[in-house]
Amino acid sequence: MLKEQLAASLEEAFSRCGFAEPSVAQLKTACNVSLRTLYKYYPSKEAMIVGALEFRHQRYLKFLREDAPKKPEDATLFIFEQLEVWMKEFAPHGCLSMNAIAAFPDNELINQAVKEHKKEVQHLLGELSQRPDLSVELFLLHEGVSSAWSLVGKTAVISAKSVALRMLSAPL
């Protein structure tokens, strides 16, 4: 339980401050624990980042799944509506996973955590839309919205929903 609480605090700290700025001492303060306790669960800053990313990953998948409609078209629109809420409330500075890769492009553990996250999001998009054959296309729309969010906001969501509906209605 404490490890999960630490991961939640780390997620918030990295989301708010980025990855380069907070020192381990600042992260310890954000977690409200001793340095010994923080290192017991996360023995390096890299491990802290991966822990935060994995925690956020689980939170995001749950966020997309919760209350998702059963009808494919409604579920697909819901995905992008949820993404809009997520960007507004939890990711105003962009995708935390992509920010982690930008900060640590050569770090294998961080890159692997992000790749797994993105792969599972892609799978979930295919599952919720009931169109696994369109999972890559829906994933690209999803990623486009999260990348463009800080520049165009809701317009990205509106456009993605429009394109997604056209894809769903196209003959198989």
TrEMBL record:
For whether the record's keyword set contains Repressor, the answer is no
The answer to keyword Signal applying to this record is: no
Per the record, DNA-binding region residues lie at 23-42
Q: Which UniProt keywords apply?
A: DNA-binding, Transcription, Transcription regulation
Domain HTH tetR-type, residue spans: 1-60
Q: Which residues form a coiled coil?
A: none
Q: List the PROSITE patterns hit by this protein, alphabetically.
A: HTH_TETR_2 (PS50977)
Under InterPro entries, the record lists: Homeodomain-like_sf, HTH_TetR
Classification via PANTHER family: HTH-TYPE TRANSCRIPTIONAL REGULATOR YJDC, TRANSCRIPTIONAL REGULATORY PROTEIN
Q: What is this protein called?
A: TetR/AcrR family transcriptional regulator
Question: What does the record give as the organism's lineage?
Answer: Bacteria, Pseudomonadati, Pseudomonadota, Gammaproteobacteria, Vibrionales
